[in-house]
Amino acid sequence: MRHNGRMSLGRTFDTTARFRLCFVCTGNICRSPMAEAVFLDLVRRSGREGAIAVTSAATGDWHVGESADRRTVDALARRGLDGAAHRAKQFDADWFDDLDLVIVFDRSQERTLKSWATTEQDRSKVQLLLDFDPESAASEVPDPYYSDAALFDTVLGMIERACTALYRQIEPGIRQGAS
């Protein structure tokens, strides 16, 4: 989805930022909004708002336009993060051109996004979030949708650790002005 040659994601997304990433889960109402909020907080706290652009999306269209799941919003609020303004959207393969990294939460999403990519370069942008966390014993972040609030908190903890590790990996390049 494009508007005036720039990515249109329903929210302002700075395609001129030095580094641009999108978190993608199945419905864009649980895991990816959590990761977006966590990563945006890391970016804000480091003062790199103009250098790093962050958004999230879904592989499916079931929840497009909906708010994040109430349990997502509540889990984020318990950590001092705000997910109330989130509205779900579906990933568009045209976005690959404007993104440096597309982060997914499980192998199914990884397969889907890689199948949508038309070049090897775009396929290489698709990475599993937990691959960035060297201390994680798991390879996938479980989908908490069909579970209780406790799993949302557990999933958020996994996302926080992995996002912090991911941020540590990209931040030196941003600090040095590399893209």
From TrEMBL:
<dbReference type="InterPro" id="IPR050438">
    <property type="entry name" value="LMW_PTPase"/>
</dbReference>
<dbReference type="Pfam" id="PF01451">
    <property type="entry name" value="LMWPc"/>
</dbReference>
<dbReference type="GO" id="GO:0004725">
    <property type="term" value="F:protein tyrosine phosphatase activity"/>
</dbReference>
<dbReference type="InterPro" id="IPR023485">
    <property type="entry name" value="Ptyr_pPase"/>
</dbReference>
<protein>
    <recommendedName>
        <fullName>protein-tyrosine-phosphatase</fullName>
        <ecNumber>3.1.3.48</ecNumber>
    </recommendedName>
</protein>
<feature type="active site">
    <location>
        <position position="31"/>
    </location>
</feature>
<dbReference type="InterPro" id="IPR036196">
    <property type="entry name" value="Ptyr_pPase_sf"/>
</dbReference>
<keyword id="KW-0904">Protein phosphatase</keyword>
<keyword id="KW-0378">Hydrolase</keyword>
<dbReference type="InterPro" id="IPR017867">
    <property type="entry name" value="Tyr_phospatase_low_mol_wt"/>
</dbReference>
<comment type="similarity">
    <text>Belongs to the low molecular weight phosphotyrosine protein phosphatase family.</text>
</comment>
<feature type="active site" description="Nucleophile">
    <location>
        <position position="25"/>
    </location>
</feature>
<feature type="domain" description="Phosphotyrosine protein phosphatase I">
    <location>
        <begin position="19"/>
        <end position="169"/>
    </location>
</feature>
<feature type="active site" description="Proton donor">
    <location>
        <position position="143"/>
    </location>
</feature>
